[in-house]
């Protein structure tokens, strides 16, 4: 994908099986929104091949659109309408697309209850708080009971309770076998919600795996906590090779050191490390395919 002479995505290849919950991460300007817009059929790619739910999104018709839900970063709508009016108008669009397997649309009052907006049902949209507004955005994305849901930074601006509510809701939606692709800058969110994390940098995917796989595959450091038996002092040491460091400690001070914990770096450390290395032009191809690790 190029905008004029500027190449933004180059050799990006990915496949998402039905029902998977995927978080797309990457630094500002990495191409996340562009990728998602191409998959939504909003943006025409300059080259390559795209298939979503069996169709090319740019050519797909109304029946395809009815199977896809979209939660944008922000969008304008009818500020003076009441919350339930907006949802009912959008819900009407989905009525012809109900199938014996999928009841469409989601009944408005049930959906408002589910997203925590039942009390705001009759409020004007321009009177909603930022968090309520975001819940309404998610409700708009869900009202057609999509098979595939795209969310662009769904919890930006929400307080901790609002974030947890949206995470719980996405967990429920994922249980209905809905495929979810969300962009986020929040690693905690990616870890809580997603089965799989994709990291995009310099126009391509530089990491692809479960949160645990990313932590183990990309972090160069581990944190080791030991306690000195005599003094009770706890020491924390960061090392790429905990086995060597512990062997040395246990040999130098036999019987004096008690090992408390060895744990891999946090997901954030692993993420920052892989992005830094990709941006420095390091070849990550050998470790980009992360192997399944025994838990
Ligand atoms: N319509 C456009 N015309 C020209 N350049 C664009 C356009 N949209 C995006 N870009 C450029 O393409 C690159 C990727 O942008 P994109 O919005 O996809 O990144 P992103 O990963 O979603 O960023 P962020 O995390 O900041 O939302 C950026 O360098 C951006 O400036």
Automatic annotation (TrEMBL):
<dbReference type="InterPro" id="IPR050763">
    <property type="entry name" value="ABC_transporter_ATP-binding"/>
</dbReference>
<dbReference type="GO" id="GO:0005886">
    <property type="term" value="C:plasma membrane"/>
</dbReference>
<dbReference type="GO" id="GO:0016887">
    <property type="term" value="F:ATP hydrolysis activity"/>
</dbReference>
<dbReference type="InterPro" id="IPR017871">
    <property type="entry name" value="ABC_transporter-like_CS"/>
</dbReference>
<dbReference type="InterPro" id="IPR003439">
    <property type="entry name" value="ABC_transporter-like_ATP-bd"/>
</dbReference>
<dbReference type="InterPro" id="IPR003593">
    <property type="entry name" value="AAA+_ATPase"/>
</dbReference>
<dbReference type="InterPro" id="IPR027417">
    <property type="entry name" value="P-loop_NTPase"/>
</dbReference>
<dbReference type="GO" id="GO:0005524">
    <property type="term" value="F:ATP binding"/>
</dbReference>
<keyword id="KW-0067">ATP-binding</keyword>
<dbReference type="GO" id="GO:0046677">
    <property type="term" value="P:response to antibiotic"/>
</dbReference>
<comment type="similarity">
    <text>Belongs to the ABC transporter superfamily.</text>
</comment>
<keyword id="KW-0813">Transport</keyword>
<keyword id="KW-0046">Antibiotic resistance</keyword>
<protein>
    <submittedName>
        <fullName>ABC transporter ATP-binding protein</fullName>
    </submittedName>
</protein>
<dbReference type="Pfam" id="PF00005">
    <property type="entry name" value="ABC_tran"/>
</dbReference>
<keyword id="KW-0547">Nucleotide-binding</keyword>
<feature type="domain" description="ABC transporter">
    <location>
        <begin position="1"/>
        <end position="227"/>
    </location>
</feature>
